[in-house]
Specification:
The chain is of the alpha+beta class. It has helices spanning 2-18, 41-47, 76-79, 112-115, 253-264, 283-289, 307-310, 330-338, 393-399, 418-421, 441-450, and strands spanning 51-64, 88-101, 107-110, 120-124, 130-139, 144-149, 172-177, 185-196, 207-210, 222-224, 230-237, 248-252, 276-280, 297-302, 318-322, 325-326, 345-352, 355-362, 375-376, 386-390, 408-413, 429-433, 455-461, 464-470. The longest helix is centred in the first third of the chain and has 17 residues, at 2-18. The chain is globular, with a radius of gyration of 27 Å.
């Protein structure tokens, strides 16, 4: 009897939780640890209309046709010894992803990789309305793209972009998107880490890490705080199976805001420049420099005409922070520079000869000097198929190049071309061809026209000079 009485008291205490949900107006978002038993529905209800599904069709991709009868011929090692021709075939591929409405006039942010090379784009709202869309701006380096939906006079409800610099590890977040094309889905988690970079993450980014479940199709969707603000755009997962393993990454909303503002001004994202060559401070360097821990960027060279040198910076300085935000690596430097509005000055915390000081560095857009003079190399030589430009501060910032500040840079390689087969890569700097050092792209073409086998070509790649003889 005592057990039955205790059970009835417990059931009575739990009954409110099992009652039919009250009208949604009576629910409130959790704002304390004790209220975590309450619903996230008010937050979701406020953001859902601004999260859209994106369908991109007509993307042309190359696929190599396998050798079904002789599987060993699919091995690149064996293919080197047989002239098998080019078995690549173009095929159309459709992709799906998510996006976030950032303007009532139909401006939508998503990932670059969601709409890359798409022939047609359609956005579907949470209420199932559909609109065609076109690309307004796209930035491969940040993996962000902006679309404009053709609304025919209608307006959309935009999301509110929060301040991603206010995030802390442990904050509760929600991820909203269209995983696997099943329809709009909400997952919850926490901020697992901030300022994530590295090979596990798409591109040279600077990401928010979360354990809110992110799966294929979530790309371009919203990462939301409990104030209902979008503080990130979901972009990638770290997974060996293709599904969520609790390690997802989002582009900070502050970078999204910069891209939206640039697009509204009619331009693309142009990052300010410093005119320096740098390297991360490792454990050994930190010990040699007298730093208590590794972190920061050691300035290896500073252009005399660059903003950093003109502000009093010099080779040997260690950049520790920008506007009070720590700079631990090059990705952090690029991110913080992108956040700075051109025309003013920024406070750079540096270490010089063991003492910390602050420099006021002008924030300037990089000049296009010399003009890039882009050319596509053709002819009977190993560099055929390479796209080259003259190196300038604008090119250095656009392509994230960290090396010498003059020369000719390879910016793209045609698939299947001699340059691709010989192992040249975008980002290689041409140092010499047949022992002649080219001054510009026209010089490269002139040297290649008069040269002959064997070709001796030297490049600068990843901090090293490499020389190869092609017979």
């Amino acid at each position: 009897m005592r057990r039955l009485t205790r059970f009835l008291w417990l059931l009575a205490a739990m009954l409110p939780a099992f009652q039919p949900a009250a009208a949604h107006e009576t629910r409130i978002a959790p704002d304390s640890a004790g209220q975590l038993q309450l619903s996230f529905a008010p937050v979701v209800r406020g953001v859902r209309p601004a999260v859209v599904n994106i369908f991109a069709s007509g993307r042309q991709v190359e696929r190599r046709q396998p050798f079904s009868g002789f599987p060993f011929l699919n091995d690149p090692f064996f293919r080197r010894f047989f002239d098998l021709g080019d078995r690549r075939r173009q095929r159309a591929q459709n992709s799906l992803g998510s996006g976030v409405v950032v303007g009532a006039d139909g401006l939508i942010v998503t990932n670059h990789h969601v709409i890359e090379n798409a022939g047609a784009i359609k956005v579907v709202l949470a209420d199932r309305r559909e609109f065609p869309a076109r690309v307004v701006a796209s930035d491969e380096r940040s993996d962000l793209a902006l679309l404009r939906a053709a609304l025919d006079g209608e307006t959309l409800r935009p999301a509110v972009l929060g301040d991603s610099d206010d995030l802390e590890v442990g904050d509760l977040v929600l991820a909203i998107g269209n995983p696997f094309g099943v329809g709009q889905t909400v997952t919850s988690g926490i901020v697992s880490a901030l300022a994530r970079t590295g090979p596990a993450v798409r591109g040279p980014g600077y990401f928010i890490q979360t354990d809110a479940a992110i799966n294929p199709g979530n790309s371009g969707g919203a990462l939301v705080n409990l104030a209902g603000e979008v503080i990130g755009v979901n972009t990638a997962i770290f997974s060996r199976s293709g599904g969520s393993h609790g390690v997802g990454f989002a582009i900070p909303s502050n970078l999204v805001r910069v891209m939206v503002d640039s697009a509204r001004r009619g331009g693309r994202v142009v990052r300010p420049w410093l005119g320096i060559e740098s390297q991360p401070v490792t454990t050994d360097l930190a010990e040699a420099l007298g730093l208590p821990r590794p972190g920061g960027l050691l300035v290896n060279a500073a252009r005399a005409d660059g903003p950093f040198a003109r502000a009093g910076g010099a080779q040997g300085d260690v950049i520790l922070s920008i506007e009070g935000h720590p700079v631990l690596d090059r990705a952090a430097l690029r991110f913080r520079m992108t956040m700075l509005p051109a025309g003013g000055a920024a406070a750079f915390g540096i270490l010089r000869r063991g003492r910390e000081t602050v420099l006021s560095v002008p924030v300037e857009l990089p000049p296009e000097t010399p003009p890039r003079d882009r050319r596509r190399l053709t002819g009977p030589h190993p560099l055929a198929g390479a796209g080259i430009v003259n190196l300038s501060p604008a090119v250095i910032e656009e392509f994230g190049f960290n090396g010498p500040d003059a020369g000719v840079l390879i910016v793209d390689i045609e698939r299947g071309s001699p340059a691709a087969r010989h192992g040249f890569r975008p980002g290689d700097l041409l140092r010499s061809i047949d022992r002649q050092e080219p001054d510009d792209t026209a010089d490269v073409e002139a040297i290649l026209r008069t040269g002959e086998r064997p070709w001796r070509i030297s490049i600068w790649r990843g901090g090293r000079s490499l020389t190869t003889i092609f017979r």
